[in-house]
Amino acid sequence: MLKKERQAYILHQVNLHNRVLSADLSQEIKVSEDTIRRDLAELADQGKIVKVHGGALSQGYHFSLNAQQVYSLDEKKIIAQKAASLVQDGMFVLTTGGTTIIELARALPPGLKATFFTGSLTAALEYMRHPSIEIILIGDRLSKNAQLTVGGEAQARIRQVKADLCFLGTNAIDTTHGLTENDWEVMQIKKAMVSSAQKVVSLTISEKVNTAQRIQVCDIHDIHTLVTELSPDDPLLKNYIREGLEVL
Amino acid sequence: MLKKERQAYILHQVNLHNRVLSADLSQEIKVSEDTIRRDLAELADQGKIVKVHGGALSQGYHFSLNAQQVYSLDEKKIIAQKAASLVQDGMFVLTTGGTTIIELARALPPGLKATFFTGSLTAALEYMRHPSIEIILIGDRLSKNAQLTVGGEAQARIRQVKADLCFLGTNAIDTTHGLTENDWEVMQIKKAMVSSAQKVVSLTISEKVNTAQRIQVCDIHDIHTLVTELSPDDPLLKNYIREGLEVL
DNA sequence: TGTTTTTTTGCGGGTTTGTGCCGATATTAA
DNA sequence: TTAATATCGGCACAAACCCGCAAAAAAACA
């Protein structure tokens, strides 16, 4: 069997079954696993498949629906960078969704071994591109507005977790009303996250600092750390430091 | 034998078998391999065949250039169309993930009011674009291979549901081994879905019919309906009708 | 017909490609 | 943690390839 032929066959199998094992192919085509591995590597270089340990996956599934233009992306990248530094190996981390969280996902160091809990589809999709973190998806009814699972079941699951960290993509925060939201169901989810985490981190672009919305998620003192794109000594953040928050 | 004759013969052989080996031809026509090679090179220059190391392939065989699209999309659209007609207002529907299921999501009639349960991120994302269906995300650990939630928790949640319908994006099916998979964790999820649904529907492009993989999900008789892109009276499907399956 | 010219072919070499094997390392699962 | 499995890098060997040349064959021509 010619090399091209073999590779065509392999590509076909991958597209057909989404996943193939080198060992299976080797037995099927009667060539050594090394050869299969080399074929898979070549096909992966050409971008036709995705190589994984032990075999390969089809490319078709593996593109994420990204590239939506993000509002004030640069600021969010700075926030993400700061926030990522808080995550240590072995931690359990709760996160909401939103564009800032997605930037956080991208900013995680490649070798990190931690477990992320989220009810956000887009966040989960982004976490999946990371090679070594584990992802626990929180199930329940999917809110089309929030792109997030909401409901009692989700809250119950969140409360089961004893998380080290909780990252909240924040819509509005000020010292008198605390962290506020405009969606009842999202509020409930965030509330559950706040109460399940040792340390609560709010990721907020400075534009949203000192603004409030209708529904309170938690008091300002329930937040331990505030991350913005500004320097910690920026006057805008003085109030929060006075209230005892750590500001990055 | 004249050069022209020989090349005509070679071209004929290539088109007939899709591939030829220089060594074989050399022996067959009783000329040196160098001559064969030169012939193949000429034919390749004229664009009549594709030269590869060791021989040559026919034109059609080398169609691989950047098929970034979903594999056999048209077939899947037909399947999706047929499957969508099974869903009625008010139904509870369990589904796996995969490209065929995504096509199903796109084929659902806009006014449909039903509840879809899935552990697949990509499927959930597609369902979210539908205006009126409700989506319940099944939570648990996200398998990066399968792009699906897997694990005991997910299985337990699935078993809680009394679903009317279950759509399985199917990897391999045949009458003796039933529905088979290549991933242990995915098998468990599908198994749970099969046992929780009144009616189990397997969505399978005909290429996968009568193939098997390593791990059995369920017996052929646990499947009630088989949907392929073929007409129900296609001979390939006769066996399944004989086994008592409904074939669409 | 015989001779010259052109084309085609086979062969000897050195080079490249494809494959399998082995030992060292990395990754995964229990 | 350990054990099992997969991967990587290097090596070896055979098969295929390329190049140049000269013999052979075919074609052209006197």
TrEMBL record, chains A, B:
HTH deoR-type domain: residues covered: 3-58
Listed InterPro entries: Carb_Metab_HTH_regulators (IPR050313), DeoR-like_C (IPR014036), DeoR_HTH (IPR001034), NagB/RpiA_transferase-like (IPR037171), Tscrpt_reg_HTH_DeoR_CS (IPR018356), WH-like_DNA-bd_sf (IPR036388), WH_DNA-bd_sf (IPR036390)
UniProt keyword annotations, A-Z: DNA-binding, Repressor, Transcription, Transcription regulation
Superkingdom classification of source: Bacteria
Organism encoding this protein: Chitinophaga japonensis (Flexibacter japonensis)
GO function term, MF aspect, one: DNA binding
Protein known as: DeoR family transcriptional regulator
UniProt KW Repressor keyword: yes
SMART domains to which the protein is assigned, alphabetical: DeoRC, HTH_DEOR
Keyword field contains Transcription regulation: yes
